[in-house]
Amino acid sequence: MAHSGINILFEGRNMVRLLGGLWISAKIAIVAIVVGLILGLILGALRTLHNPILRVILRLYLEFFRVIPTVVLLFLFYYILPQNFNINMGAESMAMLVFALWFAAEMSDIVRGGIISVSPHQVDAGKAIGLNRLQLYYYVLIPQSIQLMIPATINLVSRIIKTTSLLLLISVMDVINIGQQIIEANGQRYENGAFWVYGFIFILYFILCYPLSLWARHLERKEVVTANG
Amino acid sequence: MANELLTVTHLVKNYGKKEVLHDINFTVEKGSVTVLLGPSGSGKSTLIRCLNGLEEFHGGQINFEDQTITPGFKKWQPLRQHIGMVFQSYDLFPNRTVIDNILLGPLKVQKRDKNEALAQARQLLKEVQLSEYENAYPRQLSGGQKQRIAIVRALTLNPDFMLFDEVTASLDPEMVRGVLEVIEGLAARKMTMLVVTHEMNFAKQIADKVLFLENGKIVEESSGHQFFEQPQTQRAQDFLSSMDF
């Protein structure tokens, strides 16, 4: 067992580096999720207003981020923005921006769906007691739709975490990039190093995403029971 | 006349190209109860909803207190504190307790002192015999209880005028009485009200004036007594004879 592949993970600082890479991925995902949540909530609420121009603009924004593959978005922002628009950001910041804008776009659709599913009678009742539009959103529509939004939002969070695996394409030192470096550096001594390194990364992603998936499923089931009850 | 709280003049309402309310004219005197009757689909709910801006109207005007309201009027929001409305489906906010439902308007819209608004809310809850439900959620209440809370929610804004849109239509028969008693109590205290209802005995008892609406037109306007004893139009006679009361 002197050369068991699993040892590649414990060679030198490999484990620390892999976990460091995971932290980079998580940091990008966390910033993107926080910024995207706030922005998505605002944009989603704006999409429910009856302003046709605003609606078209926000719809185009959503479709742009939905239709274009994430890899292309990353390349677009990482290579084209600095070259053609003289915007220079580090790879990590650029990744946070792309993921935040993507999250906000998808989130806006979840928020919009949640808000429009609140009964119009509730809007009438809110108006009838004199609430203004902002108060109507704040006290009536958003609190009542949040429960509907949570499962889809958790799924979106899990998608963002998984998609951070593309970060190596714009040279971010994420867990996959570091994993590859480790495999290449130790390739001669550990022939099946890739199996263990990627296996370990698989487990890391699984530990992050599976509880989220279970939680979303639990909430969805609870929602069905509440709706029927 | 100084005694008029609300005057509706030549009001017209369209849905797309279709005119659904035609040349509506009536007045509501302060302290009176006006009952709006008519078959289903005659435009009663649409009309009552035009009076607090939940529906737009497209012609004519409404005068409420010293305010003149014409089509496209945008300043409904401050006005709605003076025009309370109760709906058929109660429409309490399910995520808020009874007391939070009641206090939302007084505290957030009228910016009143919390203790003062709370004291008023508790007094009104006592009057509708629901004091012990202050901290309950709407889902824990029966239909009749919810509707009485909805009335309290509207009254806590101290409105000058109350609109009731078929408030007993969703209730079990044994729940109806409790809600009607609350409205009768308000009538006795000279609250100005416009009531849409299918409860004929109640209408007969409470109405100072009846507006009989059919196909979006007021086809008869008379005192409550006259409408039920000697209706002037054939349509009103047919309507009354078709109702079981």
Describe the fold and architecture.
- The complex is a heterodimer of chains A (229) and B (245).
- Chain A has 229 residues and is an all-alpha fold.
- Chain A has one domain (5-228): MetI-like (MetI-like fold).
- The termini of chain A are far apart.
- Helices cover 78% and strands 0% of the residues of chain A.
- Chain A is built from 8 helices and no strands.
- With 245 residues, chain B is of the alpha/beta class.
- Chain B has a single domain (4-242), classed as P-loop containing nucleotide triphosphate hydrolases (Rossmann fold).
- Chain B has helices spanning 44-50, 76-79, 98-109, 114-127, 143-155, 173-188, 200-206, 224-229, 234-242, and strands at residues 4-15, 18-29, 33-37, 59-64, 67-69, 83-86, 161-165, 192-196, 209-214, 217-223.
- In chain B, the strands form 2 sheets. In chain B, strands 6-7-8-3-9-10 form a 6-stranded mixed sheet, with helices on both faces. In chain B, strands 2-1-4-5 form a 4-stranded antiparallel sheet, with helices on one face.
- In chain B, helix 3 (98-109) packs across helix 4 (114-127), helix 3 (98-109) packs parallel to helix 5 (143-155) and helix 5 packs parallel to helix 6.
- At the A-B interface, helix 5 and helix 6 of A face helix 2, helix 3 and helix 5 of B.
- Chain B: It holds the Pfam family ABC_tran.
- Chain B: GO terms for molecular function: ABC-type amino acid transporter activity; ATP binding; ATP hydrolysis activity.
- Chain B: Residues 6-240 form the ABC transporter domain.
- Chain B: This is Phosphate ABC transporter ATP-binding protein.
- Chain B: Keywords: ATP-binding, Nucleotide-binding, Transport.
